[in-house]
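anyone seen this seq b4? input:
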Amino acid sequence: MVHHKGHGRGWGRLIGLLPAVSLLTVLFLGALGFSVAQSLGYAPQYGVMSFPTNIYYVSLFKDPGFWQSLGLTFYYAITPTLIGLMISIGLSLLLAHKFPGKGAALFIYKIPMVVPYLVGVALVLILFANGGIFARILFALDIIDRPSDFPRLLQTAEGWGIMLVYLWKQVPFMTVVLYAHLLVLSREPEESALLLGANRVQILWHVTLPRLIPAIVSSSLIVFAFNFGAFEVPYILGAGYPNTLTVEAWRLFDDPDYTNRPKAMAIVTLVSVISGLCLLVYLSLYRAYERKRGRV
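predicted toks r here
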């Protein structure tokens, strides 16, 4: 009887989730399906009816600007993810120990998580623009001759402004995930290693970090996926040309010539496919790592 009740509760949970899952599935797959159809030439609303055709993909692959944009997209996705991950690991390990002011630190570091990305963009513009606050401070201290001499950090291919916004917003998120994982881990393996003569660096590298791998993978996977498909931050703070694939897709979609919109949909489709393949490879490598350690 207990078994049947548990089985019934399981089905009840599935049925309860069905409306939300169905809605998300329809919206995601529907949007992706329309993008694929339009990228293959089925876009009668734009006066394009050449389905099926691959001319839009071929024109992208022949365009050097597409490969530059793809490289920038990976750069803006991978670099802040790796830097933010290292910072987050350090912060989570620090927060796992007692220190004066820990209660305030646990509150303050989470604040960026509830602030929109565009607020971070505005802060970066105010602080780091060539006439921003830091430029004026350096000018007041006679370090530079005029505010316009401040190094250009925004609207460049290096993407310093983009990195700052991503780190400001995403380090707290990854820290929350890693810190929560540390809280549920037993301290016994670290204590045993310490008793066996391991130093703190050895314990960190051989005991703590391997046990953090699941949280590292999950948090970095989410951050990478977001960065790869982000639009507003690189659109405002990135270089004019080339820029990320999402920005280039918007420019094509916003072109007065509607026949360019299927090409924009081809970029959108490629962003989805490439990011999905990257995540699949990442998860496959993680599962191979877990199998090697005998945990799968």
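The radius of gyration is 24 Å. The mean pLDDT is 85. kinda curious what u guys think
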